[in-house]
# Entry
Amino acid sequence: MDNVKNIVEKLIKNFGETYAENLGINLKNATSEKLFEWFFASILFGARISEKIAIKTFQEFKKHKILTPDAILKAGWDKLVEILDLGGYVRYDFKTATKLLEIAHFLKEKYDGNLQKIHDKALNSKDLERKLMEFKGVGETTINIFLRELRETWKKANPPPQPYTLLAAKNLGLIKEETTHEKFEALKKLKTLWENYPVKNKNFTHFEAALTKIGKNYCRKNKCNQCPIKNECKTYIKQKQP
# Structure
């Protein structure tokens, strides 16, 4: 099992930050403001657009100090479109500007602008997801991204692992092929694995984010030769065998 320990450590070493941390968002004991920032970022990540553009767009909104429901409503549609375009979010600028305004309005009207209240009122993880789906234009992908990195913050945050995550875990030999079809069973196995091989000052969310990044940026694109942990990958090693 030393090989598993080595894989986990290399994953964390190379991809040890969550997506939220990459954006400077601290979700540990998160405030209402930080929760909304991550929700905002999840909306940007949730579209069929590159991570690079989503990150640049978030940074533009941060620079313009438009990362709260009040600031979004005050900015108005034209200003939102302008900032989205500055970030390169051109393909979805009109649609996203409208979505952001509707989300900000709904959040203020129903939950006093505080996402924490949604979690507090939710009966369980499924109810939490259902309540988040009430936001117009917010789908399963966005909700999965949002809740994935809140596992350690919100007790009721328990989304299934994303396909990219499972793909990386399978390729690295951390879970079996058949397990990838049972997402929550796979999640359970990955959590157990992390409990057995934890890395200091990190938690399961970091491990899951690292697997997601590997799966999305390397496994899915067949960029095995460029992967930083290719020498630990069972799939890569098998491909290289004569």
Notes: The longest helix spans residues 93-111. The CA atoms of residues 27 and 61 lie 19 Å apart. The radius of gyration is 19 Å.
